[in-house]
């Protein structure tokens, strides 16, 4: 069990020693996120099981999970309705050469729930969907250049690291400063008549300023480009219809994954029929695109989210958590900010003294992990529908201990 002292992570560490000999994602430093597991020896690496809002590591430690598989979990781990829907597909055969009925049902559901979605293209991963959106945009407009913002995947056009990526692939990609329409306007003006699409997350940590998303869409259309929303994180979390519904904006194409199927690997590109016709002119294919198990998971997940009650619950709990964090931060006099929308909260230490900031940061996350709260130090967190008010109370008890540890470390 988790408690006040250091965790027993002996089984996690033993598995890691085995893994570094064979698993490239652990053998080399810096895979995807820097310091993805914070302090070596203080953070669990391998999990055994999960249920609702909690996970158990291989050493038997139990945690309230606010990482939630990087946002793929919205209902809660091992949701019974989703699990049963998937098991039905597995029992009947989920890869049977022919398309399955559930593919039609999911496409119909997506067009009913997502604003302005007239056609659906089901894929597997988020990178599949964003790259498909770029390819369709290029065909539809007859242009090549892309303006993008946020984390949009790992393919050549948007990879965040240069290794293995031809310089030509990103020579036709530009970016801009979030919440700054003048910066976006300048990006379009640098390449008049060349931009196929503006592809962007609606937000990451900071919410969109009033009118920003609508202004971005207007700028894209003014310059003859498509407006594409990357809703991998916001989709089926901020509202049943995503950011378009939440912020009253209209996109030509929208991409979804993560919470769409409560952890199962599936993604979708949806959009206006006029644009989606380009599917017939491009090559985007995978043997696994038509597997039915993940589609059944998506139908079962969206069916539970559709009336908005679970997402209202998630938002309310996130607001409680953010308010509690802000109060604790002020009480301890630590330089920092509580960030993010309630469904995806985050905390950032801001002490101008880099050494003091680093000590506070590490002490906070080490202590909260020991207290049974799983937070990511370098990626915003998530709230799920299985969380309760009692879970928020427990989280705030853990963060109170974390702030005490951070204060002592910063001044040590």
Instruction: Please state the second-level CATH architecture of the largest domain.
Output: 3-Layer(aba) Sandwich
Task: Enumerate how many helices there are, as a single number.
Answer: 15
Instruction: Report the top-level CATH class of the largest domain.
Output: Alpha Beta
Question: Helix proportion of residues, in percent?
Answer: 40-55%
SSE series: HHEEEHHHEHEHEHEHEHEEHHHEEHEH
Secondary-structure class: alpha/beta
Let me know the largest β-sheet: 7 strands, mixed
Strand content: 5-15%
Summarize the structure.
The chain has 412 residues and is an alpha/beta fold.
Structure, explained:
- This protein has 412 residues and is of the alpha/beta class.
- It folds into two domains: 10-66 and 309-411, Aspartate Aminotransferase, domain 1, CATH 3.90.1150; 80-306, Aspartate Aminotransferase, domain 2, CATH 3.40.640.10.
- 42% of the residues lie in helices and 13% in strands.
- The protein has helices at 10-19, 24-27, 68-71, 80-92, 101-113, 126-141, 167-171, 181-190, 212-222, 242-247, 273-276, 292-305, 309-332, 354-370, 389-410; strands at 47-51, 54-57, 62-65, 119-123, 145-149, 173-174, 195-200, 226-230, 253-256, 267-271, 336-339, 346-349, 373-374.
- The strands form three sheets. It has a seven-stranded mixed β-sheet, sandwiched between helices. Strands 1-2-3-13 form a four-stranded mixed β-sheet. A two-stranded antiparallel sheet has the order 11-12.
- Strand 11 (336-339) and strand 12 (346-349) form a beta hairpin.
- Helix 5 packs parallel to helix 12 (292-305), helix 8 runs parallel beside helix 9 and helix 14 (354-370) packs antiparallel against helix 15.
- The longest helix has 24 residues, at 309-332.
